[in-house]
Design a protein that fits this description.
The protein has 6 helices and 17 strands. By secondary structure, it is of the alpha+beta class. It has 2 domains: about 15-100, 2-Layer Sandwich (Phosphorylase Kinase, domain 1), CATH 3.30.200.20; about 105-250, D-amino Acid Aminotransferase, Chain A, domain 1 (2-Layer Sandwich), CATH 3.30.470.20. It is globular. It starts with 16 loop residues before the first strand and ends in a 5-residue tail after the last helix. Residues about 215-225 have low confidence and may be disordered. It is an enzyme of class 6 (ligase). Pathway: Purine metabolism; IMP biosynthesis via de novo pathway; 5-amino-1-(5-phospho-D-ribosyl)imidazole-4-carboxamide from 5-amino-1-(5-phospho-D-ribosyl)imidazole-4-carboxylate: step 1/2.
């Protein structure tokens, strides 16, 4: 089953309890009960965490997430407390750390799509729908949708696929009221991000969010999440969690100019990689030019969005 090509060993830090190693982040708990998220330079594609890292990627994701939290603060609270590196942590944690409030996370990937591509395009070509939502005829790869849509998915473990689900399935899992909140907030946050990105020359084609609630009260019924407002968590509107396209070169009916990890996916799926993504063998190490090209796209996305050069 896909997963890590090489399983990383988490750092041992006094006062921190290691909780989980994910595709990109390592999660710890400090003595105050706060979560310490450390973004690595690992990168994943096609359900594999690749054997080659992308330099600076963890810092880019962390800094860009913090920037977006500021842009979204009036729409939704977030879980960030500080970016202070814990005492005794490795030196390379600098710039990668987010100390966060613990939340009861909802088991849903909240995906918003404003353009048709990826798995949504596959379903549209087959059924004229995305996550069961009917779309008009005549759309192509890269077409802008009549309005953004909420297309949730189940959150998978490392090596498993996220699976698209209907709004009705979300309601069954987390309750009707919470499902409605997730849809409204996902589309509101996507809309804010889309408008900011567009003004800076980037098309936000689609993205995914994760939400939780303060784990302070029991749910109001079977399948309902804990009481309290929804809180935005994890990474937000980064090249890992979003599809960014260059606005000046956007044209439906063909692949777009990506400023995200689609560039790396395209290389892995090409004959140049020599890799069969449908086979059992893990993906190969990335050549230097693909590593450099991926890093360049991440740093350029950061520059275009924030207006700040990557240092």
């Amino acid at each position: 089953m896909p997963g890590f090509v090489e399983t990383p060993q988490p750092a041992r830090v006094p006062g921190l309890e290691h909780l989980h190693t994910g595709k990109v982040r390592d999660l710890y708990r400090n003595e105050a009960g706060e979560l310490v998220m450390v973004a690595s330079d690992r990168i994943s594609a096609y359900d594999w965490v690749l054997p080659t890292e992308i330099p600076d990627k963890g810092r880019i994701l962390t800094r860009l997430t913090q920037w977006w939290f500021d842009q979204l603060a009036d729409l939704v609270p977030n879980h960030l407390i500080s970016t202070e590196v814990p005492d005794g942590a490795p030196a390379d944690w600098e710039g990668r750390v987010m100390v966060c409030r613990p939340l009861e996370m909802l088991p849903i990937e909240c995906v918003a799509r404003g353009y048709l591509t990826g798995s949504g395009l596959v379903e549209y070509r087959r059924d004229r729908t995305v996550c069961g939502l009917a779309l008009p005829p005549g759309l192509e790869d890269g077409s802008e949708l009549p309005a953004p849509i909420f297309t949730p998915a189940t959150k998978a473990e490392v090596g498993d696929h996220d699976e698209n689900v209907t709004h009705e399935e979300v309601a069954r899992r987390v309750g009707v009221e919470t499902a409605a909140e997730l849809r409204q907030l996902t589309l509101a946050v996507y809309g804010r991000g889309r408008d900011i990105a567009r003004d800076r020359g980037i098309i936000l084609a689609d993205t995914k969010f994760e939400f939780g609630r303060e784990a302070t009260a029991p749910g109001s019924g079977e399948g309902e999440a804990a009481a309290g407002p929804l809180v935005l968590a994890d990474e937000v509107l980064t090249p890992d969690s979003s599809r960014f396209w260059l606005k000046s070169e956007w044209a439906p009916g063909r692949p777009q100019q990506p400023f995200d990890k689609q560039y790396l996916r395209d290389w892995l799926a090409s004959p140049a990689s020599g890799w069969d993504r449908d086979g059992d063998a893990p993906p190969p190490p990335l050549p230097e030019e693909v590593v450099a090209g991926t890093r360049d796209r991440y740093t350029e996305a950061y520059r275009l969005l924030t207006g700040l050069a990557w240092d």
